[in-house]
Design brief:
single chain, 492 residues, alpha+beta, Beta-Lactamase, Helix Hairpins, Heat Shock Protein 90, 13 helices, 16% strand, histidine kinase, Sig_transdc_His_kin-like_C, HAMP_dom, kinase, HisK_dim/P_sf
Length: 492
């Protein structure tokens, strides 16, 4: 059973007060009972001695059982709070006035009697109760002699006589004063105990507040501080709160680092894109200025060459701008996905036909495996067309003349895997982890004759993430590359 902090504090305080209250009650009852017994025993201390000296039967030390029984009976009628017993010198009970079945023991211990007779100032003294096997009671006792020889003892058990006047004097003694001090000390002890317990229970809270202030002073940078190890204990709210706070600080720190890294990447990307934008613009401006300055002095061939260069740079500039807008749109996270069922073979044939002329110009074989494909998939046609177009275009740029590019399709239960395989320049293992980063250009692209925008693979990665198609790349430098992803198959 899980308890909240308030419940634990409430139970602790309640338990502490119950224990203290019980101890106080026990001490009070014990002291009151002791004071009562002390008063009663002192009040009747000489009772047995007076009876022994004033009664002829006991004064002469003559033992007469029937006469003593009558005497004890008479005395008990006069004083019903007392019980009278005649003991021999060994403590055996010889005479009493009571029913035999009420007497539980046949002898009593003589040591308390001797203590009371020799040291009557040390009260109360308890002796054996003949009517109980283990009980103890206060008593009065006197020795009985016969011609100088100890005959036995008169043993008087003192019962509950009213003693208000005597108790009023006794209650002001040192023990009751000590009792008052004990009560005060107990309350002080309870207060100290409660303060210690509250401090113990609130220590984790103070520690958590201290760590919060420390994190705040370090601008939520957890790398500069050492947070405590808080446990994810659902039964302990403070530990759970500390654990959640530590996770929150870690998450905030990760997000701050990510924002810092994104800001750095954004600045680098802007710088690189600015350079890429300036390059075709500068080329276009230079050729247009040349045409404008030289005018009719230019030959028709030179004018046509200049205009073709301007047109090529314009197309490159438009492509780069389109890709920048497309990537920004994808990263904004507001792109909608229109899923539908369609045959993947037909879409790939259309895409292959679109790149057939470009492939033939480089004498590259562009094929589909298997040649006839009737698999149905559930995906977004437009985004899938963009992914395959980027992959095939990327393969054409990195595959030399007389090379080969294959679009391989495999059906595996509920998934259709599409792979674009080429035998081109390949990608080194060092570059493989970064090829999907925006503006990253691998080493196999650094000698290209025609520059490209450099955002195609980054856009492809974003699109495959939207379609829940995990992109996998395998490549070996000088031998070619394979870009593969899978789509949800539709079983007819």
């Amino acid at each position: 059973m899980s308890l909240s902090l308030y419940q634990r504090l409430a139970l602790t305080v309640t338990g502490a007060f119950i224990v203290v209250a019980y101890l106080l009650f026990w001490w009070s009852s014990s002291l009151a009972e002791q004071a009562k017994h002390q008063a009663e025993q002192q009040l009747h201390l000489a009772l047995a001695e007076h009876l022994a000296n004033d009664n002829p039967l006991l004064q002469d030390g003559v033992y007469n059982k029937s006469a003593l029984e009558n005497l004890f009976h008479t005395l008990m009628v006069l004083g019903p709070a007392f019980e009278f017993y005649f003991l021999d010198s060994s403590g055996n009970i010889l005479t009493y006035s009571a029913d035999k079945d009420k007497i539980k023991r046949q002898s009593v211990e003589l040591a308390p009697l001797v203590t009371l007779i020799d040291s009557p100032e040390q009260l109360p003294v308890y002796g054996d109760d003949p009517r109980s096997i283990t009980g103890k009671k206060i008593f009065s006792a006197a020795p009985i002699y016969n011609q100088g020889n100890l005959q036995g003892y008169l043993y008087v058990i003192i019962g509950g006589e009213i003693y208000d006047s005597v108790f009023a004097r006794v209650k002001t003694n040192q023990q009751l004063v000590q009792h008052g001090f004990i009560i005060i000390a107990a309350f002080v002890l309870v207060l100290i105990l409660l303060l210690v317990l509250l401090r113990y229970f609130t220590k984790p809270i103070r520690q958590l507040v201290s760590e919060m202030e420390l994190v705040k002073s370090h601008q939520f940078d957890s790398t500069q501080i050492n947070l405590s190890h808080w446990q994810a204990n659902k039964k302990n709210e403070i530990q759970l709160l500390g654990h959640t706070f530590a996770e929150m600080v870690t998450k905030i720190n990760e997000q701050l680092m990510q924002l810092t890294d994104n800001e750095r990447i954004r600045k680098e990307l802007l710088a690189q894109l600015s350079h890429d934008l300036r390059t075709p613009l500068a080329a276009m401006q230079g050729y247009v200025e040349t045409i404008a300055i030289k005018g009719d002095s230019l030959s028709v061939e030179d004018r046509d060459a200049y205009l073709k260069t301007v047109l090529r740079n314009g197309k490159q500039l438009k492509l780069l701008i389109d890709q920048i807008f497309e990537l920004a749109h994808l990263e904004d996270g507001q792109v909608s996905v229109n899923l539908e069922t369609f045959p993947i073979g037909e879409l790939i044939y259309d895409i292959v036909a679109k790149f057939a002329l470009k492939a033939s110009e480089k004498n590259i074989k562009l094929s589909l495996n298997p040649a006839q494909c009737g698999y149905l998939v559930y995906s977004d046609i437009a985004k899938l067309e963009r992914i395959l177009s980027n992959l095939i275009d990327n393969a054409l740029r990195h595959t030399p003349a007389d090379g080969e590019i294959t679009i391989d399709i495999q059906n595996d239960n509920d998934r259709v895997t599409i792979a674009v395989i080429d035998n081109g320049t390949g990608i080194s293992q060092e570059d493989l982890s970064y090829i999907f980063d925006a503006r990253y250009r691998a080493s196999n692209a650094k000698g290209e004759k025609h520059k490209h925008a450099g955002l195609g693979l980054a856009i492809t990665k974003k699109l495959t993430s939207l379609l829940n198609a995990n992109m996998k790349v395998t490549s070996e430098l000088g031998k070619g590359s394979c870009f593969a992803f899978s789509l949800k198959a539709v079983v007819v």
